[in-house]
Amino acid sequence: MVKNLSKEGSDKIDWDTEDELEIQEIQDAIFSSCRDLRTTGQHALSGDGEASSSSVPCRLSKFIQQFVVMGFSEESIAKAIEQNGENSDLVLDALLTFKVIEDSPEEQPTASPQLDPSICSDDSYSEYNENFLDDVYEEESWSSDSDNCICYLKDESSSLSENEQTLLSLANMGYPVEEVSIAMEICGKEASLAELTDFICAAQMSRAEDPYLPEDVKPKLKHISNDSGGYKKRKMFNQLCKGKKQRTIFDEDPISLPKPMIGFGVPTVSGPAMVRRTLPKQAVGPPFFYYENVALAPKGVWDRIASHLYDIEPEFVDSKYFCAAARKRGYIHNLPVEGRFPLLPLPPRTINEALPLSKRWWPSWDTREHLNCLQTAIGSARLTDRIRKAVEDVDGVPPMRVQKYVLEQCRKWNLVWVGRNKVAPLEPDEVEMLLGFPKNHTRGGGISRTDRYKSLGNSFQVDTVAYHLSVLKDLYPEGINVLSLFSGIGGAEVALYRLGIPLKNVVSVEKSEVNRNIVRSWRENTNQRGNLIDFDDVQQLNGDCLEQLIDSFGGFDLVIGGSPCNNLAGSNRVSRDGLEGKESSLFFEYPRILDLVKNIMCGER
DNA sequence: CCTAGGATGATTCAGGCA
DNA sequence: TGCCTGAATCATCCTAGG
């Protein structure tokens, strides 16, 4: 069933051949277009943070949205962005500072009521917001460059009446406009936001418990069915303000990790039958999309990620079912889940099978069969020396205390036995093999050993991703056009290639030059003939740029990528700041770009 | 400047047990 | 139910040495 693409195979493929010069010209034109756009004030907030009344791109909207869902007013956000640019950390700091000032009665005796502390889950945010904006601003005051992109302009909102501002604030928090209106009528115009949120939540709770309530209404109320309403929201906001390392906490049932972590199924475990899932209408392609990140992110992160990707339930899969190393990851995608097949041959799934030379030295008391997650750093030589001495000092089987210490360190650093009493970290080519990359994929071309580990540690496990992508093979026998965001060392491209799906046009976005070179070199080594256009910054990809790309080869079939996990990963002791972290906030670029691609391809732009 | 080594916990979740 | 323990975790920053 599976055909791994051989050299001969790839030569037989009927490629869309294009003169290299022509490709270069297209590429140059697109690059210059993007640069031009970047410097000609297309962004509502330019470098100096000046607000513009022209159309506001989705990126900015999403950037603002992340603060709106925390309960900050759009005025404060606009002010904070003006002062700090689009740096999440700085903007958040500024917002918290505003909040402290506004909460101080001595300094601000007449604080605006819309800044009343409150917070909500943002699952229903967009929907309610759209309703709200439809109702309130039928033809003015805001602009949007897509149906899914709602943008706020500072000047207009500040010209609203107090009532309208209250309405706007509550709608931004996710409360339905109709319910806000009713609450304002019943509680009176003098009512504080706290009173209004309490009233709305009480009403929602009472309806949620109503056995005669239609089922299609109940899910929307799920997030308030198990809490104490506005009080809890305000309490959460207060927690939010306590420190910088706050997170959005969700009222509704948080997304939990499945056990076993096999998603919709893996080829090596006879788990529950493949489910036929129903995707929300707006999530259905084209294009197909596939998003990845660490499964063990801080609480609430996956809820937020899903809320920006059509509320699709993430598929959590541990790659230990595909190879000898664990890799717990979440994937949100709109691919079919039936008819998947794995890459063949199936890779070895135990340490002994994957590293047969280590078998000879493996002590019986080290019962590991799988390696832990392959990370970006390795154990030091000094550590392996300490372990050697600890084990050498005893005759025969070491005492439990030593065993425990050694095993703990081996698990922590993924050490393997390479000699009598001798452990060592994995070699880079072993990591390549475990992750499903060809040998020497990251070797040479100016990359250091340390950076090889780093690039590999940040990559996909190819067999896992390929299994999910395998359904594309029958759908695109002639090959596909791929938009690969946060490409890294090309895990997605390698997966598609190994599935035998020809890569016609690949637009790859990757910050690291070393990684871009690895992908380019791999393509040359494998004699691929499609086009590779690469960018170094996702933020360069604006609507006009994407439009030109899509015009030049007729649209993307797949938008794939895993955004930075730095601020989500448990290993990060310094800046595990969640989705608002410096790097991880680039996640918001993914739905922004996906929306743009969808809209351009639907001809709605 | 580049590279490698070393020191640096917190946040989750699961399972056991009183 | 609450507490404890164990386990896992796509990392960051500083420094020394070439």
From TrEMBL:
SUPFAM superfamilies per record: S-adenosyl-L-methionine-dependent methyltransferases
Residue span, SAM-dependent MTase DRM-type domain: 275-604
Active site (UniProt): 565
Methyltransferase found in the keyword field: yes
One Gene Ontology term, aspect cellular component: nucleus
InterPro entries, alphabetized: C5-Methyltransferase, C5_MeTfrase, SAM-dependent_MTases_sf, SAM_MeTfrase_DRM, UBA
Domain of life: Eukaryota
One matching Pfam family: DNA_methylase
GO molecular function: DNA (cytosine-5-)-methyltransferase activity; DNA binding
Domain UBA: 61-98
EC number: 2.1.1.37
First-tier enzyme category under EC: transferase
Subcellular localization(s) per the UniProt record: Nucleus
PROSITE patterns (UniProt xref): SAM_MT_C5 (PS51679), SAM_MT_DRM (PS51680), UBA (PS50030)
Keyword field: DNA-binding, Methyltransferase, Nucleus, Repeat, S-adenosyl-L-methionine, Transferase
GO biological process, one term: methylation
PANTHER family found in the cross-reference section: DNA (CYTOSINE-5)-METHYLTRANSFERASE DRM2 (PTHR23068:SF25), DNA CYTOSINE-5- -METHYLTRANSFERASE 3-RELATED (PTHR23068)
Entry's family note: Belongs to the class I-like SAM-binding methyltransferase superfamily. C5-methyltransferase family.
Name of the molecule in the record: DNA (cytosine-5-)-methyltransferase
Organism: Anisodus tanguticus
